[in-house]
């Protein structure tokens, strides 16, 4: 399984409403794609780990990278893992 970690910069300050929208969409999309992960959101930064089937992780990352709410996506790590680090 593929684990991908990236960071990006929000175009506007991150607020609770934005996080709620992202969380709702992520739960729906990730369940359908067999993806788990972690999202950390700060004042203007996102740090996210995605893990699951390689093709699904790549497709999810491509969709996320195209989201206009942020820019400057930089992949920090991309590796094959035996077990999920963020299974729940």
Q: What is the chain-wise order of helices and strands?
A: EHEEHE
CATH architecture assignment: 2-Layer Sandwich
Give the overall pLDDT as a whole number: 94
Give the biggest beta sheet: 4 strands, antiparallel
Structural class estimated from helices and strands:
alpha+beta
**Measured distance between first and last alpha carbons:** 16 Å
Structural domain count: 1
Unreliably modeled segments = none
| Oligomer status | single chain
CATH class: Alpha Beta
Report the portion of residues in β strands.
Answer: 35-45%
User: Could you say which overall geometry the principal axes of the C-alpha atoms support?
Assistant: globular
User: What share of the residues lie within helices?
Assistant: 25-40%
Number of H- or I-type helical stretches: 2
As a whole number of angstroms, the C-alpha radius of gyration is 12 Å
According to DSSP, the number of beta strands is 4
- For the largest beta sheet, what order do the strands appear in spatially? 2-3-1-4
Task: Offer a quick outline of the entry.
This protein has 88 residues and is of the alpha+beta class. The chain has helices at residues 16-33, 54-65, and strands at 2-10, 36-41, 45-52, 70-80.
Task: Walk me through this protein's architecture.
The chain contains 2 helices and 4 strands. With 88 residues, it is an alpha+beta fold. It is globular and about 35 Å long. A 4-stranded antiparallel β-sheet has the order 2-3-1-4, covered by helices on one side. It has one domain: Alpha-Beta Plaits.
């Amino acid at each position: 399984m593929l684990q991908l970690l990236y960071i990006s910069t929000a175009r506007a300050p991150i607020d609770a409403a934005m996080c709620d929208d992202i969380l709702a969409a992520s739960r729906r999309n990730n369940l359908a794609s067999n993806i788990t992960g972690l999202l950390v959101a700060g004042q203007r930064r996102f740090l996210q780990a995605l893990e699951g089937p390689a093709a699904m992780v790549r497709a999810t990352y491509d969709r996320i990278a195209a989201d206009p709410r942020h820019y400057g996506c930089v992949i920090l790590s991309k590796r094959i893992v035996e077990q999920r680090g963020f299974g729940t």
